[in-house]
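queue> pop job 88
queue> type: inverse folding (structure -> sequence)
queue> payload:
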């Protein structure tokens, strides 16, 4: 028995356009044509389509599917093993994302709720990019320091946040001033500012040894979303993020010996 392209589209759940594409690419060429030149699919064609859809559901590219169907015994097992590994990794990542979302919801439940006006009063131009927060949660998921920072942040009152952000604003102004005045990133003034930032993290969030501080500074240098958490875009200068990273690195190499005010 033969079926038209419209019939196959209907019961296979694929579009006519997709079937035409499979035909043109040679992946699924109908075994028959009607007297008028229309595609007709037989039972063997439908069996092949079922295989194609199975592999597509697993995420294989059409080129990979063509390779499998050309010689199933030679390639299918290795490709399936690779796909299985990728799917397991993806499941693991999705599971971690669920945990991050759950922790974020917990912070929202237990943390201080600020109105939009209060948020603007406290944070000003400093904004939190949700995509960065999610990625950072995955990056630091096994860190006790990150968990403590989230817990302490959730416990801060509006007054705590106001003091914290005021302290950060003063530090930021000094950092920008040092950069604008051409201070070397490895010099005493810059490394003292790096140490001041590390102490700020310790004071308000979590213990932060120099090596951990350097990992945080990596994000400042590499990810604009992270740097925007310490310097809003309106106050940034080209090279400022790299300057801060270099100062943190120099301070870390000295074991965090920078002293504010030098």
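queue> result:
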């Amino acid at each position: 028995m033969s079926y038209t392209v419209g019939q196959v589209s209907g019961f296979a759940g694929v579009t006519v356009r997709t079937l035409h594409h499979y035909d043109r690419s040679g992946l699924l060429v109908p075994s028959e044509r009607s007297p008028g030149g229309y595609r007709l699919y037989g039972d063997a064609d439908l069996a092949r389509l079922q295989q194609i859809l199975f592999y597509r559901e697993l995420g294989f590219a059409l080129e990979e599917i063509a390779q499998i169907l050309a010689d199933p015994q030679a390639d299918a097992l290795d490709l399936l093993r690779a796909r299985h590994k990728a799917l397991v990794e993806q499941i693991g990542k999705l599971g971690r994302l669920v945990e991050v979302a759950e922790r974020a919801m917990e912070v929202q439940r237990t943390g201080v709720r600020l109105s939009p006006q209060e948020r603007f009063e406290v944070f000003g131009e400093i904004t939190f990019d949700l995509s960065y927060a999610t990625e950072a949660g995955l990056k630091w998921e096994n860190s006790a320091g990150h968990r403590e920072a989230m817990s302490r942040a959730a416990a801060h009152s509006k007054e705590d946040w106001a003091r914290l952000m005021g302290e950060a604003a003063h530090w930021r102004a000094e950092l920008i001033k040092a950069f604008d005045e051409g201070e070397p990133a490895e010099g005493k003034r810059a490394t003292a500012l790096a140490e001041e930032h590390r102490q700020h993290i310790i004071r308000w969030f979590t213990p932060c040894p120099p090596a951990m501080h350097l990992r945080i500074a990596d994000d400042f240098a590499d990810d604009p979303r992270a740097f925007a958490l310490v310097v809003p875009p309106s106050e940034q200068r080209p090279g400022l993020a790299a300057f801060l990273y270099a100062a943190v690195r120099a301070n870390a190499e000295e074991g965090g010996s920078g002293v504010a005010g030098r």
